[in-house]
Amino acid sequence: MAIDEILSGLFRIEVPLLHSPLKSINSWVVPGGARTLIIDTGMNRPECEDALRSGLDELHVDLGQADLFITHLHADHIGLVSALKRPGTRVLLGRHEASILEGWTGPEQFFTYIETEGAKLGFPPDELEQAKQRHPGIKYSPRTYPKFVHVDEGDEIRAGTYAFRAIETPGHTPGHMCLWDAARKLLISGDHILGDITPNITSWPELDDALGSYLRSLAKVARLNARIALPGHRSVIRDVASRIRELENHHHMRLEEVLSLVDDHPRSTYEIASMMTWDIDLDRWEDYPVAQKWFATGEASSHLEHLRVLGKIVYDRPGGGWRLAGPR
Length: 328
Ligand SMILES: [Zn+2]
Description:
Blueprint: E1 3-7, E2 10-16, E3 24-30, E4 36-39, H1 46-58, E5 66-70, H2 75-78, H3 81-84, E6 90-94, H4 95-102, H5 107-121, H6 125-134, H7 136-139, E7 148-151, E8 156-159, E9 162-168, E10 177-181, E11 186-190, H8 210-222, E12 228-231, H9 240-260, H10 269-275, H11 290-309, E13 313-316, E14 321-324
Parallel strand pairs: 4-5, 5-6, 6-7, 11-12
Antiparallel strand pairs: 1-2, 2-3, 3-4, 8-9, 9-10, 10-11, 13-14
Helix pairs in contact: 5-6, 8-9, 9-11, 10-11
The site of zinc ion (ZN) has 4 residues, from loops.
């Protein structure tokens, strides 16, 4: 069992994510005091639940006296909230994120979203059908969600010797939240800042210009001058400022690449995604698994949308296609 005390009284339980390139998720636990704080949980899968429960047992955590703080609505973070909840467990989630899940009527809603969004992005219908079946977001989420305690910007969450403030960081998801302990200059960064991988930024119906929001959230967090960041996946980040700069540079280079693929001939988001370079061990777009194509097209979409907001490109409808701004 992978538990380590990362800072005094603050533990990491590494929860495995089988068959996922993310490999594992970090659940951060601050035991002791009146209540234990558990930050993020893992997917709703038996091996995640076993790993998290045995870690919590080892730390002698009483779930009935615990608060679960969830950084964002992705299945690998929120997946186990319903399984872990006891009478007395509070599940804390950002207000915006909670409002999305409170409007959730079941998998059909998600399938309809994939169909309409996929058609807009120019996804071929046969691949869309596969994308629906293989999307991990549905398979590993809780079947039903518990009642959430809504968290707002600046809310205080105390545990052990830690006094966190909630910081809204929309971008990776519409209502993503980080936790900030000012005395220690410690940021619990969720998937807003990751060290070894680049957080996925896709488009959301609930968030205009997701990439623009993400870049503003990066700038907001940069102003905190964090000394250490504890991310949702992989290693602890010791040089937070450099990592933020790397992420900013990454997206600026991506924006340049995407802009270079837009000309006067309208192209769909899917088509542009197929022309971009991707860090995957396959040469041809045609050979990519459909799930990868779905994530790649979402990533392309957030960059195209940001270029549109910057006034550099336009989307022609009907017909559907991105082209350079200006008269044709
Ligand atoms: Zn995430």
